[in-house]
Amino acid sequence: MKTLLLVLFSFWSIGVVHAQQFSGVATYHSRSQLELSFDSTAMSPQEMQTLKQQLMKQMQKSYTLKFNAKESLWEQQESVNSGPASASSNGMELVISSGSSKDKRYQNLEEGKYRNSQEMMGKRFLIIDSLPKYEWKIGNETKKIGDYTCRKATYTKISEAKRFATGMEEMEVIQDTITTEAWFTMDIPVSHGPNNYYGLPGLILELKVNGRHFICTEVVMNYKKAAEIQVPDKGSRVSKKEFEAISEEKMKEMMQRYRGNGDGSDIEIVIGG
Question: Which superkingdom does the taxonomy of this entry point to (predicted)?
Answer without folding.
Answer: Bacteria
